[in-house]
Amino acid sequence: MKKLFLSLLVLCGLQANALEAADSLATAAQKPVPADTLAVEALPSDSIHRFEQPDSVTIRQFDDHLQVNIFGEKDNPDFRYQYTHKTSVDDEVTNSEWNFRIPFIDKSKPVCPSEHDFEMGGLGFGFVNALNAPQPMNVDMGNSYEIFFDALRFRWRPWRNGTSFSIGFGFSWRNFRMTGNTRFVQDGNTIGFDTYPENADVKFSRIKVFSLTLPVMFHQTFAKNFQFGCGAVVNFNTHASMKTVYKLNGEEHKFSTDNIHQRRATVDLMAYLKFKVLSLYVKYSPSDVLVNDFGPKFNSLSVGFILF
User: Fold this and answer.
1) pLDDT band at 111, cuts 50/70/90?
2) Are the CB atoms for 182 and 137 separated by under 8 Å?
3) Beta strand residue intervals within the chain, DSSP E
4) How large is the average pLDDT for residues 209-237?
5) How far is CA 72 from CA 54, 69, 285, in A?
6) What is this structure's pTM?
7) Would you identify the CATH topology of the domain 116-307?
8) Mode of pairing for the β-strands spanning 145-156 and 190-195
9) Fewer CB atoms inside 10 A, N or C side of the chain?
10) 160-174 confidence digits (pLDDT tens)
11) How many alpha carbons lie under 13 Å from residue 48 in its C-beta half-sphere?
12) Residue ranges of the chain that CATH labels 2.40.160
């Protein structure tokens, strides 16, 4: 009888301890998790904990705090972690997203403030040569030039990796200049060639073309302020002229005409390499400058630099 009585006392004591432990767990579960603390197991201050292969991660944003919950980790499916951070109106929340990336692109470049905008283009200066020209047409590239200005440009950035496309509007002047013993002449409606009179003091003989331009370009920004671009420039050649100047026996002679039958629309292929505000460019036109029935066949090639 004595042994039975002792057994009952032990059993009652175990039940009391179990009830007390259950009450303690229930009370702890009802207490809110303090801000910036570990919910399941405390971490030392200024420590780093790496969560490997978590089962799931939830992030909940409330009006006054941000809550992160991590469930499970490698070799520990019962692991639980909760982090609560008090927020204010001055805090910023950044959402990451997948980006289309190209090798060697500066990934630290700040995100563009907008996906599209209007901007002023660059001012370009270059030297021009006449390719595939007939033998008498000896254009002096060092004295032949082009000047162009992209007055307005619309730029579109489809991705946040430095890639952009643009279309613009501008102006262009090209000057094909000969300084040798051959000059441009006009015979009726046709532009041809002739030599200067004997003992003439040659100044120049040139063809000049003015165009309204519509550049359509692809741009890619790389690391360290480098940018590459290529595309097509549509030229609407609204005006062209021919002019020859020389002196003979101390008297200056000038011959000019603006009826040389230039092609009204041509296309240039253009590429450039830019560092900060200075670009080097090359531009080639597969289109003939003049209408074939009214002048010599030749194409335009120019190289130079662009500011801004």
Assistant:
1) very low
2) yes
3) 56-61, 65-73, 76-86, 116-119, 123-131, 145-156, 163-178, 182-187, 190-195, 201-221, 226-248, 251-257, 265-275, 278-285, 299-307
4) 95
5) 5, 10, 64
6) 0.63
7) Porin (2.40.160)
8) unpaired
9) N
10) 888 999 999 999 999
11) 2
12) 116-307
pLDDT tier at 130 (50, 70, 90 boundaries)?
very high
Structure confidence at residue 91 (pLDDT): 54
Q: Phi/psi of residue 147, each to 5°?
A: -130, 130
Q: Is the pLDDT of residue 191 over 60?
A: yes
Cα-flanking dihedrals φ and ψ of residue 271, to 5°?
Answer: -145, 150
Structure tokens at 297: 């066949």
Could you give the angle at the alpha carbon of 97 between the alpha carbons of 94 and 99, nearest 5°? Answer: 130
Q: How far is CA 156 from CA 98, 117, 207, in A?
A: 19, 7, 37
Nearest to 143 by CA among 201, 204, 95: 204
Distances (CA, A) of 300 to 79, 145, 268, 270: 72, 11, 9, 12
